[in-house]
Amino acid sequence: MGKFSSSLTALAVVMALSGCSQPSAPEQTKSETVMGSDSAQYDNVLMQPFQGPYGGVPAFDKMKLEDLKPALEKAMALNLEEIEAIANNDAPPTFENVIVAMERAGAELSRVFTYYGIWSSNKSSPEFRAIQAEMSPKLSAFSTKIIQNEKLFARVKAVYESDEMEQLTPEEQRVTWMRYNRFARNGATLDDVAKKRYAEINQELATLQTKFSNNILADEENYVTYITQAQLGGLPASFVTAAKAAAEARGETGKYAITNTRSSMDPFLTYSTNRELREKVWRTYYNRGDNADEFDNNEIIKRILTLRDERVALLGYDNYAQWRLEDRMAKTPENAMDLMMAVWPAAIARVEEEVADMQAIADAEGAGITIEPWDYRYYAEKVRQAKYDLDSNEVKQYLQLGKLREAMFYVAGRLFNYSFTPVEEGKVPVFHDDVKVWEVTDKDTGEHIGLWYLDPFARKGKRSGAWATTYRSYTTFDGKKTVLASNNSNFVKGAEGEATLISWDDAETYFHEFGHALHFLSANVKYPTSHSGVRDYTEFQSQLLERWLTTDEVIDQFLVHHETGEPIPEALVAKIKKASTFNEGFKTTEYMASAVMDLKYHTTDPSQIEPDAFEKEELAKLDMPEEIVMRHRSPHFGHVFSSEGYAAAYYGYMWAEVLTADAAEAFMEAPGGFYDKEVGDRLVKYLFSVRNAMDPAEAYRKFRGRDAKVDALMRDRGFPVPQESNNK
Fold it and tell me: Which N-terminal residues, if any, form the signal peptide (predicted)?
């Protein structure tokens, strides 16, 4: 999943208001960075207009951390001057002198945050984190000045309520509504006393959320499990080679490093024959932020929940989730929970079946154990081989990172008519040698669409997970701006001269994040605000793109053995497809446990919550299988507590999955399958290029001809379909 960086509470609001947006938070999906006027020049490189080819590119080769704080301070001051000018304009308020002026404002701050996002997500350091901690509350105060600017809100409201609205285009009407809505939902209508408290809450949240994020990163960096050659039993050669390189990079020659990230933990738990070590690696990973030390996050969670609850109470809401979901597709926490509960019973029933299969193998082997969480992946792999004769490591030999990238380019060419050409090294600055850049053009006309940056490998200072972001988004309101999109992953790099091999799940994630990039690249909107996503919809497009990994065209051309170059055998492909719903109980339950807990955290009186105990008690009420834990346990649930991006909204992945499964069936029903031109054209027109310039529900109906149904999701996961069709 993604599948997001800095955790500044109100910053998302101000970035939207000023035509910019915050770099993505841990495992968040995206960040929209747009450019305003490029006429001004500054000594500080972080504020300078992008120079060079392709409409200008970030000067990643010149970024210096000592420039960050002064750049932020200067850019905020400039943005406030712009806002004051808009608010105090004597001319009657119009769409042009209020809304468009706000869309244009904040160009300098936008550019600074492009670099800020790189330091936050891709090359963090103790020095950066100190700046981040200092600046978070200041950025929150800055955003509050804008959201609480009464003259500005009055002008926005006047445009929103004016007769002019009827003459605006649909996108302009929606942009105006979003501008107004952000003010109204974030404290602009409060009295002076409440506004003061609202601002104080935001500043404290900014500090706490930044601390939460950095605590997770500290535990990921500080806890590394080193093992010896005698402890390598069961581990694939490719993993061993990568673990050796990881240890050497940390000065531990002769050892093997199991880093505290999912990309290292997951394969170790799948293949290691050393049960004691599996337990150690499992506990190390799932106890991030929960070690009763200086990086423990439990008290921070309590305070975050208390402050969020107090803040929405000022606005008249019963709980945080009610406020958060009001303008999402789900509309209410009850609707979101209803969807989860429609799937939950089938998911945990499937887990019971999966555990029984695993226990039977363990008993037959005379292991003398009861399946525990650190055994799940290991014995699931044995079941996979026994039931489907499918060896994950055998499949991995055909999943080369480079070939999969070519496969993604192929899909983009077929669906979007895009061509990807490597940019000559040195022509475009990058922030690390691992980063490569491609130019994206239209295959027929040669028109320049944008650039695609790829940063695929794990390293110290880079947060875990996979995510997509933009350094510039497509707009036309102030001159055409082309796209600078980026995908970021944490794959364990293969040894020098050897291919980097990844798991099937990682291959799906690779396609998923590329789906976000295509969402950025295909945009055909006029204004920056049209890029602001609806959280329970933005994962849909990327989840849908995962489906092209299993198309015959991709399998036949790009899944080839890393040593022999031979295509993946048809028999192995048949096994993969036959096992497509294998372990679905585990995958669905671990995700949904996190999503349900997120909603429970944000609909429960915070004074009644002790995080560790609350997590345990609430999951017990749901009959959570003992053999599985939440995908993101509370103390390291960065989606929810490092920022507000997914707070009370982690369910959105499941909501999007309903849309994904239903949309996939539209392709399966078409004559041309997943490459059907008519359905593909509708896909690009209504589900990708429109971004948030159209209401997502309306856009989906234009694509599908109706609302999505949960039935498709149940079929997709191999779960029983409810007797009555359940429309979303």
Answer: 1-25
